[in-house]
Amino acid sequence: MRYKGILSYDGTKYSGYQKQVKDPTIQSELEKAFLLMTRIPTDTFAASRTDKGVHALHQVFHFDSELDLTSSEWTRALNKRLPEDIRILKIVKVKPDFHARHMAKSKIYTYKISKKPLSAFKANHEVYSERFNYDIVKDLLKVIEGTHDFSGFSPNKELKPPIKTIYSFKSSETKTHYIFKIHGNHFLRFMVRIIMGNVIAIGEGKKPINQLELLLETKDRNLSAMTAPAKGLYLTHIYYR
Predict the structure, then answer these.
(1) Which residues are catalytic?
(2) What keywords sit in the KW lines (predicted)?
């Protein structure tokens, strides 16, 4: 039987989602929990390989198992064996051909910028910029929307197709934060963080107002601002066709 799981995690202590030989990762902890629970090695396949320090509110994965268990049985048993900064939210049966990564239609990422210096309890979960001027950047985000070649927003060492579609790039302001949400069909590695790094640089006056347009037009990664810190980024939702 094939199962689909929804997972949330605090990425602070982990070197990203995908398994690595030596460093702790979300996938390695998840598969360790399956082994402790079932005594059977279980391979898991996730929708997104989030990077070191990136968090997830809604990561999707799938796995195969001969065990016929309910969502609550899977969830309760696995959460007992997972670290507290990794939580299973739900596990459901799906069709045998479901694939968490290949069938993903689009993803939403959220980036959080605090208006105040960070406390010890928030230091790993958002960023703070003393000179960030939200009024400068809030009307510039639509430049990113649409189908573009995003070569200027990623090292793309994997040489993946750089043309992606961004359905929306919106922001909102609360009493305590500036919240940025970007929804796209696919993303290159570091793409969201590089976009946000340039947004922050514009807001701080370190890059020109037309910086986002410039990178889209030139496709020159060397003109980019620094990549925004991973700790402010959250994988928020994944949609399926």
Answers:
(1) 51
(2) Isomerase, tRNA processing
